[in-house]
Amino acid sequence: MKLSRKWLNEFVAVDANDKEFAEAMTLSGSKVETTEDLGAEIKNVVVGRIRKMERHPDSDHMWVCRVDVGQNEPVQIVTGAWNIHEGDLVPVALHKAVLPGGKKIERGKLRGVLSDGMLCSLSELGLDERDFPYAAITAAALLNDYKPIDPEKPSIPAGIKPGDKVCGPVICAGVANVSSAGDGKWECTLIRTEDDSPCATTLVTDCQNLHQWDLVAYNTKTNTICTLADLHAEQREFPHCINDGIFVLHEDCQPGDDIRPVINADDHVVEFEITPNRPDCLSVIGLAREVSATFDTPLTLHEPVVKGGGAGNLAELLDVETPDPDLCPRYTARMVRGVKIGPSPKWMRERLRSMGVRPINNIVDITNYVMLEYGQPMHAFDYRYVKGGKIIVRRAREGEELTTLDGNVRKLTPNMLVIADETRAVGLAGIMGGENSEIVDDTVDVVFESANFDGTCIRKAALSLGMRTEASAKFEKGLDPLNTLPAVNRACELVELLGAGEVIDGVIDVLNHVPQPRTITMDPVRVNALLGTDIHATDMYCYLERVEILTENHDFPNGPAQVSIPSWRGDVEGIADLAEEVARFHGYNNIPVTLQRGETTQGGYSPVQQAERRLGSLCRSCGYSEIITYSFISPTCYDKIGWAPDEPLRNSLKILNPLGEDTSIMRTTTLPSMLDILARNYSYRSRDVRLYEIGRVYLPGGPDGLANEPRMLTLGAYGEGYDFFTMKGAVESVLRDLRIAGAAFRACQDDPSYHPGRCAGVYAGEKLLGVMGQIHPAVAANYGVDCELYCAELSFEALLEAQGPGAEYHPLPRFPAVSRDIAVVCGEEVTVGELEACIRKAGGRLLRDVVLFDIYRGQGVAGGSKSVAFSMTLRADDRSITAAEADGEVKDILTALEQELGATLR
Amino acid sequence: MKEQLAKIRAEALAAFEGAADAAGLDALRVKYLGKKGELTGVLKMMGKLSPEERPVMGQLANDVRAALENALEACSKKLEAAALERRLRDEALDVTIPGKPVALGHQHPMNIALDELKDIFIGMGFTVMDGPEVELAELNFDRLNAGEGHPSRDWSDTFYFDTGSRVMLRSQTSPMQVRAMDTMPLPIRIVAPGRVYRKDEVDATHSPMFHQVEGMVIDKGVTMADLKGTLNAVAEKLFGEGTVTRFRPHHFPFTEPSCEMDIQCHKCGGAGCPTCKGEGWIELLGAGMVHPRVLEMSGIDPEVYSGWAFGMGLERTALRRFRIDDLRLIFENDVRFLEQF
CB neighbours of A207 closer than 8 A, spacing ≥ 6? Predict the structure, then answer.
């Protein structure tokens, strides 16, 4: 919400500077986002009066002006603009001036003639014709500026002179004299030769670029001076006859005046963030109330006074029906006749523009002005298009169509409310008017609507039509129904003030819901208890009075008392709301600071959270970095990771209104997220990447229609030298850290995401914890990666369940161990795991450890076989064992290996 | 004989001094003190001496032996020291050669910030709570006083799983307040971090998924002054002692009075600069006293109990903490980014 400080000053006088104002308002709850000083950029630009104009001695189009800028001597300024005349008031950028956009003006020479600055156009001051409609420029086609497109074939002869024919009734005439005719018009005396005798005509024209000795195209039939359009000429044929030029001021100002107040660039506009509970602050008056309360300065509100007296009887002219009273709590309307559509006055245009609203015409501007001032959206429509003089506020019919003011055809549903006459809809209630009843230049009779509509209905309609407007944004938050009448009266008052029409006496006011004055209980003791303050009851009532929350109990008791709540403060409902009002004006920062009291609680992490932290820290110590990925993925991800079409885990929660297909389902696997990140890093040419994520998957079928959200520990890596066993080592570290007993890896050939020969199920005993291995090359290719990717997906919950008991000390060995190495030759099909298991089983009580140290294939080992070497540690707890004992045990082991697995000592 | 002994002594001592290394020294030891050494040779002639001369010469010979042995040991030590010195000189390294790399993993910056926060609150007696991300609209909205018609319930703002708008992706961690009130005994002191979802397109400051931390205290006699005290302490721990804060009135459906807490801009100290967009303050979190209606809906009597709650965006805190300028980096997981933390 923007607020013009100038407009604000009409209601409450505050002279705080921008910073003080922003700080005070922010701390009382109206957060200031920005403050814009409209004239901040403009420097050293003043009003000047053109005293004398002479043609530039060395140019065919420039003028040398002597300009009075309120100094002892006039300044000399050269300009190329043709729309100015002696006596004009113009904006003058003096030497060292700065214009909007930071453009700097310096003294200089133009074709050898000194220029002490520049005369400014509208756009050079950051303005346009909407701000100053009178500054629009109409240019005559000056024959002395004519440049033929084809020099061989000029349409106007080079030596043309007054009296010569141009075409049809248009002849050449010379300008003998030009003087202001007022109201932006010029009286011009033209001379020409007719029948060899001089002949003079005086006429009034809009064209501003006429000066003595100019040659114009004079239409003898219409008695007008021709513009380029009249001659069907192109701009390049008359390069200097343009509809642009210097901004000639018709303002009450003097040479030497600072230009900023003249063009309203002395205003400061404050932009507020208004919270949704305070729709009353979406208006100048609403904010003025807050400013008044914040600075504890009186608020001066104005009661609209309408003279009325327009011809006709409102009751006969207009009838309003509200068949859906719940959607239209109040409908207020007044009528204006004999309307003269035209631009609104400067002060109104300035205020609209400072608040970011484009001026259009007096009637539309009045509705916007009232909306800004009162926060009450208003609509004006042309009475002649209200068939039958009846306004019906009804639900739209299914499929009913309406072309709204923005030119779009809207298809409506019965969930939307329309303003209709007997035959058709003429507006979309609370959102936008219809094109069929728009205020146009020849509008004569106007109906002003000031209504209160159901916020939810308006919000839903605006949302489904995708047209949230200034009006709908206000309605959807719930407006004060008591505001409609003063707003419509204010509009009518402005019509009279602007002389824009005759207001008919009387008001149509359909009141379907009569708002009752509300009182609630105030209790200073409870407010202090809630805030932790010690504010005196009298002070609290003073704070409340500032926002017009009043009590009739003038003892200001410390205990409960009734207070009345103003109609615009629907958000104040209970003691907590009153506490906030008190706190706002006492100052949040004056509330003391205390530390937590009361019963102490033991804080901390749950065992699950502790395990999560521990796992994360372990992964990092193994060299894996943490990633965070989106919970939602694309359904195509399941194809990318090679899942079968009937894979049950494809059953995912679907978001019905996703941002896009890519984020439309809740993942049931973390693998695609990890692969995405690996692929991204691969494409960034990172060589060695090791990542982990502890993240949730979302499985349908949770309690109450929700999801089960188990967590997964996902590892992913690639890089030089990274292989299956690097990943396995990391997984083993995780299992070891959790003291998981009976950990085992079993070949897994049927996980479609993994290389069938390089994938293992990870088990604790018979319990599956997850899967790990090399990503299937085809899956890697789906992600645009042509190197080996390795991943592990472990169920966090299963890991936790398999977690072993806490550490317990075992005495260190007191007797030396004996180590024995063996190498056995066995068939390729025998796995190291089987060999190791066999050794452990066959080894007696002395065998303490078995470690694989070599696998050899090649010379000396038959094809189809391999040599596998283990180092074994043997030890007794109560004595030093003998070599014979150790050899005996190794012998048993070798026998078992040979019998069970056909592995023979090499 | 006496002369002989003196000669051996002088020769040997000179030879020992001149030994170049341990081996040379050992050869000299054999030459003079060995079984067939020169001193032994002289001693062998003792038998030919008179009984009177014998003890005198014996004493003399022993003195010479002792002197030689002492000298031998001293020279040996000197040589050892020299040898060690030489070895150390030979073993000298270029210490500027890089060390052998040890792979270190890095914690995601967002979780670094989260862990800091959690630790701060645990130290104040708060319990860390987890909850579902696929959540009931009833808990995310209704029970938090944001009834039908609240704009954030719109399908343009919130992700839904059913046409009845019953099940959704939680748009805030605040439903954890309700879950805490429904399941925990009073008094309650919880923080609940987690993922939340809103329908925002990805850009430098927005993401459809982000993280929040919710916090809530409910007890008898809890005041807004307690809220300020606790959150001030948190700000000091997060951003350093002496961090200046301010509280501004704000609006949330489930707290009343509500506030936002700002910290004074660390760059300009409150004067206004590009970091704080000229305001001098940076918004940190939203908070307030738990709305009496929210307490009532959870069966807690607002006449007896009161509470305060806060919610803060984690990404923004992490971005500020590490001066990261683009939210997209958080979810891009580029290792060159991750390795900086």
Answer: A138, A139, A140, A186, A225, A227
For A441, the token pair is 């230049």
pLDDT at B12 over 80: yes
Residues (pLDDT < 50) of chain A are: none
Complex ipTM: 0.85
CB contact under 8 A, A605 and B225: no
CA distances for A482 relative to A124, A321, A430, A569, angstroms = 45, 19, 16, 11
B chain contacts of residue A579, beta-carbon cutoff 8 Å = 256-257, 289
Which residues of A fall within a CB distance of 8 Å from B217?
Answer: 596
Checking if the pLDDT of B47 tops 80, the result is no
Number of domains in chain B: 2
Average pLDDT, stretch B229-258?
92
Is B102 part of any domain? no
Question: Could you give the CA distance from residue A630 to residue A618 in angstroms, rounded to a whole number?
Answer: 23
| pTM of the predicted structure, to 2 decimals | 0.81
Which residues in chain B touch residue A623, judged by CB atoms under 8 angstroms apart?
A: 102-105
Domain shared by B200 and B158, yes or no: yes
User: What pLDDT, on the 0 to 100 scale, is given for residue A148?
Assistant: 86
Q: pLDDT > 90: what percent of chain B?
A: 57
Q: Is B160 on the interface with A (CB under 8 A)?
A: yes
Cα(A57)–Cα(A51) distance, integer angstroms: 18
Sequence-separated (6 or more) residues with CB below 8 Å from residue B116: B237, B238
B221 and B274: one domain? Answer: yes
Q: Which domain holds residue B74?
A: 2-90
Chain A residues with beta carbon closer than 8 angstroms to that of B111: 616, 626, 628
Q: Is B263 inside a domain boundary?
A: yes
The answer to whether residues B76 and B122 belong to one domain is no
A103-106, long-range: CB < 8 A, 24+ apart:
A105/A44
Give the 3-state secondary structure of residue B266: coil
Per-residue pLDDT tens for B98-118? 999 888 999 999 999 999 999
Query: Does the beta-carbon distance from B230 to A31 stay under 8 Å?
Result: no
Q: So what's the pLDDT on residue A445?
A: 92
Give A21→chain B minimum CA distance, Å. 13
A795 vs A755: CA distance, rounded Å: 20
B 241-300 residues with CB < 8 A to A: 246-251, 256-260, 278, 289, 291-292
User: What pLDDT shows up at residue B278?
Assistant: 80
B237-250 average pLDDT score: 91
In this complex, the residue of B133, B187, B232 whose CB is nearest that of residue A593 is B232
Look at the alpha carbons of A8, A13, A17, A21 in this order and tell me if their dihedral is positive or negative. negative
- Domains in chain A, please, with CATH? 2-36+270-295 (3.30.56.10), 43-134+249-262 (2.40.50.140), 143-237 (no CATH), 314-511 (3.50.40.10), 518-590 (3.30.56.10), 607-802 (3.30.930.10), 818-905 (3.30.70.380)
Q: Is residue B97 part of a domain?
A: no
- For A495-547, write each residue's pLDDT tens digit: 999 999 999 999 999 999 877 889 999 999 999 999 999 999 999 999 999 99
Is residue B218 domain-shared with residue B264, that is, in the same domain? yes
At residue A153, the pLDDT reads 85
Q: What is the residue-averaged pLDDT of chain B?
A: 90
Name the token pair of A728.
Answer: 């396995």
CATH code, domain with B170: 3.30.930.10
Question: A382 is written with which tokens?
Answer: 């042309």
Q: Within this chain, do residues B67 and B156 fall inside the same structural domain, yes or no?
A: no
